[in-house]
Design brief:
The protein contains 10 helices and 12 strands. With 284 residues, the chain is an alpha/beta fold. It has one domain: TIM Barrel. A 5-stranded parallel β-sheet has the order 5-6-7-8-9. A 3-stranded parallel β-sheet has the order 2-3-4. It has a two-stranded antiparallel ribbon with strand order 1-12. Strand 3, helix 2 and strand 4 form a beta-alpha-beta unit. The chain is globular, with a radius of gyration of 18 Å. The structure holds zinc ion (2 copies). One zinc ion binds next to loops. The site of one zinc ion has 5 residues, from loops.
């Protein structure tokens, strides 16, 4: 990549995955994320904090049900403060596991949302208690099965960080072994039309690469699965982090477009235009 000339490019990108302190493991309010989005040359930021769940499920890493209104108030405050500068929007990162569907259906209807991420979080003890029986490979298969089931619920726009389980597997992670099961899950996800995320925060995890890997992105491209980039920012300064690398990776794999969701409608953006908006271009 090289830098373009000095004219200030027009922002077109959105941060599609960011958090708030309500989840108890993130810092900065939506106004801080909006400020960071402006500094990054982004058009907007979608706040997608961890959804409330019933029965105190993993309540130590998410907002409480009675904080959901406060969550939207914080986003509205930022939206008003940054009007005309940064487009601040409400979204949600909702956990999927079988049985949670009716709760999420009601939750997603309550306040209009722009982007709903569907996440399976295999690192949660609450998830492992139910789905891990000591067989690591079976656990990986269940994880990918759950990604497919999540897409099939129709509750989500984008399946988040879709190979997160590899970070837990350690030496038990063998892409060649799990690949047929990933292929099966991707066939099912492709049939739903649901998008998948390229999450740049994977670079800080046990296997330091974005989620998913470039190889899996290639399998997604073969099935025409749309991609949404997200930094999964838990601190404001991570807004937009890794987007240039993510765009470069996608381009190398063969993708020509990325997507954002606004009002839960998918909007494609040409990768080359996205790069120009960041003041970058590839040598042709
Ligand atoms: Zn989080
Ligand atoms: Zn997540």
């Amino acid at each position: 990549m090289r830098l373009l000339g000095c004219a200030l490019p027009t922002p077109i990108l959105y941060e599609s995955h960011s958090h708030t302190p309500l989840c108890q493991h993130a810092q900065g309010r939506p106004v801080d994320y909006a400020e960071a989005a402006e500094a990054a040359g982004f058009k907007g930021v979608i706040i997608t904090c961890h959804c409330p769940l019933p029965d105190n499920h993993s309540d130590w890493v998410r907002m409480r049900p009675d904080e959901y209104e406060l969550y939207h108030d914080m986003i509205t405050e930022a939206k008003e403060q940054f009007a005309g500068r940064v487009d601040v929007r409400a979204g949600l990162e909702s956990d999927f596991f079988p049985g949670v569907e009716p709760w999420l259906e009601e939750l997603h209807e309550r306040v209009p949302l722009n982007h709903v991420l569907g996440s399976v979080h295999p690192q949660l003890p609450e998830y492992q208690d139910t789905y891990y029986n000591g067989d690591g490979f079976a656990f990986q298969r269940t994880y990918f099965e759950h990604l497919a089931l999540a897409a099939e619920t129709g509750l989500f726009d984008t399946i988040a960080h879709p190979d997160l389980v590899k970070n837990l597997a350690g030496s038990e992670w063998s892409f060649a072994s799990i690949q047929p099961h990933i292929a099966e899950a991707l066939d099912r996800i492709a049939a739903t039309g649901v998008a998948m995320e390229l999450n740049t925060s994977g670079r800080y995890k046990a296997i330091p690469e974005m989620n998913p890997s470039a190889t899996m992105l290639g399998m997604m491209l073969e099935r025409d699965i749309p991609v949404v980039i997200g930094a999964d920012a838990h601190v404001p300064h991570r807004v937009g982090e890794g987007y240039a690398d993510a765009l470069e990776t996608l381009r190398r794999v063969g993708y020509r477009e990325i997507n954002i969701f606004l009002n839960r409608q998918r909007q494609p953006i040409a990768i080359d235009d996205a790069l120009v908006s960041l003041g970058l271009t590839f040598p042709s």
